[in-house]
Structures are given as C-alpha cells and as structure tokens.
C-alpha cells in the first residue's frame, strides 16, 4: 500500500490517505492515534438549543450548524476539540443526496484542515421531532508518558 498525503500528527492523530483509494473523498480514509491515549466517544450531537428545542426546522444546513456547535461543546466538556477527532458519523434524515451534501458541507467546514475519517449516512428518521441531522464523534487525547520516579 502506498501512502500519500500523510498529514503530520496534530495532537498525536495522524490522518492517512492511500494512493490505492480514490482521491475524491473530502476526508482521510484512516486515522492513527499514537499511544498512550484517552479515548472519547460522544453521543450523537443533535440540533437542539439550550432549552431542548429543535432548531432550524426543515433546514439541513441550519441544523448541521447547531449540531456542530453542540458537538464542540460536548468535546470541550471532555477536554477535547475538533482537532482531536479521529472519526465522525453523520446521520441525515433524507433519501436525497442533495440534503446529505448540504449537511456534510457544514460538517466539513467546521472540521477544516483536520479532515478526519467520516461516514455520511441517509436514514429514515432521527430521535427528536423535526430532527434532520445528527453527528457523533470519536476523539483521542494524547497522554503525557509517566516517567518513573527513581
């Protein structure tokens, strides 16, 4: 396997692309977390405001914006950021590719240069009334090695 565009580690996460796979994806095909790490799994971030109301009803991009704000908040509460993410899964309640792309573009914009591996799925329904988008993430924090006292 030939590796192209191996992104230097950011926070201990190496993003990897292979010349044996199509270069059209707007994300790395793999991520490697250097050891030792602490892993963080988020619940699906939903398009809810602080009162628990679904926002941007009928607007895929608008909901994706709120989802990403909520995801950042969840990651920050665990001591992480989007730069620590090694994998996302994006759920969009639609069978229309255009709707998936609208949500994906917002996620992609928030991830910036840290284009961690991701899976984008069209699903029939999500958990909250009028919910169209949900994103879950896995992140890692590199732990400082413990030096034995001696």
TrEMBL record:
Organism superkingdom: Bacteria
Matching InterPro entries: RutC-like_sf (IPR035959), YjgF/YER057c/UK114 (IPR006175)
Family annotation (SUPFAM superfamilies): YjgF-like
Protein name per its UniProtKB record: RidA family protein
Native source organism of the sequence: Actinomadura barringtoniae
């Amino acid at each position: 396997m030939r590796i192209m565009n191996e992104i230097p580690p950011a926070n201990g996460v190496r993003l990897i692309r292979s010349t044996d796979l199509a270069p059209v994806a707007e994300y790395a095909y793999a991520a490697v977390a250097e050891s030792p790490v602490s892993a963080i799994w988020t619940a699906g971030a939903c398009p809810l405001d602080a009162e628990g109301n679904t926002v941007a009803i009928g607007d895929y991009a608008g909901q994706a914006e709120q989802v990403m704000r909520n995801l950042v908040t969840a990651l920050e509460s665990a001591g992480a950021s989007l730069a620590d993410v090694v994998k996302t899964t994006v759920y969009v309640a639609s069978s229309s590719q255009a709707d998936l792309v609208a949500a994906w573009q917002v996620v992609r914009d928030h991830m910036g240069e840290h284009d961690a591996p991701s899976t984008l799925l069209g699903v029939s329904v999500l958990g909250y009334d009028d919910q169209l988008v949900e994103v879950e993430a896995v992140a890692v924090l590199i732990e400082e090695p413990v030096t034995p006292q001696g």
